[in-house]
């Protein structure tokens, strides 16, 4: 008997030990999971900084600027060599290339392309900022949409409760109950859809700032504000853009380089040869591209201005629409409480209010983006193709 009791006590001790170990392991697992889930509070400035730091194009521009500096020094060395040479063997040298070197073409090319890349870097920075801010705003809009749809869902459920009470008292019809139930279901569908939109918007933002998709983020800059556009000086904006935009700098630089190149080919090839004619045509094209670049830049600034005016007008008009929708919802609720409107009238008014509030927030985001674009119209524009490969004409 004593032996059996001893065995039972031993079994109980073993089971107790195993239970404690299991509980300890579960506690450790929960603690580890809690430690792994770190929520990142993210401001707009931090998001832009992270996107810039992870942008590969920025690295490529810096790398190519370094290559161009090497090319500039190589071009200068060749120019010094040919200017100091007493004799140049035509069998081993390309005379057109020698003329280009003596006219400082390669060093000038590297110098001008470096300026273009530096301007392109400035443009890229601003482009990244606007892209990230736009994506950040999409998350804000999605969050606001959830908030508005949640309110609409709550109102629909409350309206269904009231209609059911009236139906039980014989003062509402089955059709009204069904309409209220459909409104609740539709509100729930809209709310679920808004949650999905938020998740998608967050994924896009995480992708742009190069964070893992599993990273939990909370936006620090919650509010979108409307700051009315002051009186705009469109002419001054156009003048500034023409002085600073990359497209015009590129066109001017290409013309300067083409003059040197055409001079070299026309100096060596007579006017009846195709090389002379080809490079004469290239110079004509470069000359025509300069005024076209000025015209394109002006067009771009004017369109940015009109987009901003349009966005602000739409936002101001929507402000009035929201006021009317709120008043309509209030009046319909009051009429319903006094038996002068149907539950369907109340539900429609609440739905219209939710839609106008969401539309207002979307227009507010669009206005802020358009304002940011116009305010930086002296920088933004199209990046030149192969902007990082301008060293291909430099001598080896």
Q: What would you say this structure looks like, in words?
A:
Strands 1-2 form a two-stranded parallel ribbon. It is elongated, with a radius of gyration of 35 Å. The chain contains 10 helices and 2 strands, in the order αβαααααβαααα. It is an all-alpha fold and 396 residues long. The chain has 2 domains: 1-37; 38-375, Up-down Bundle (Outer membrane efflux proteins (OEP)), CATH 1.20.1600. Helix 4 crosses helix 8, helix 7 (234-244) packs antiparallel against helix 9 and helix 9 packs antiparallel against helix 10 (343-375). It is 79% helix and 2% strand.
- Could you tell me the CATH topology label of the largest domain: Outer membrane efflux proteins (OEP)
In DSSP terms (H or I, runs of 4 or more residues), the helix count works out at 10
- What is the CATH H-level superfamily of the largest domain? Outer membrane efflux proteins (OEP)
If you compute it from the alpha carbons, what radius of gyration comes out, rounded to the nearest whole angstrom?
A: 35 Å
The low-confidence runs, each spanning 5 or more residues with pLDDT under 50, are 30-35, 383-396
C-alpha termini separation: 100 Å
Shape: elongated
By helix and strand content, what is the structural category?
mainly alpha
Can you count the beta strands?
Answer: 2
Please report the first level of CATH classification, the CATH class of the largest domain: Mainly Alpha
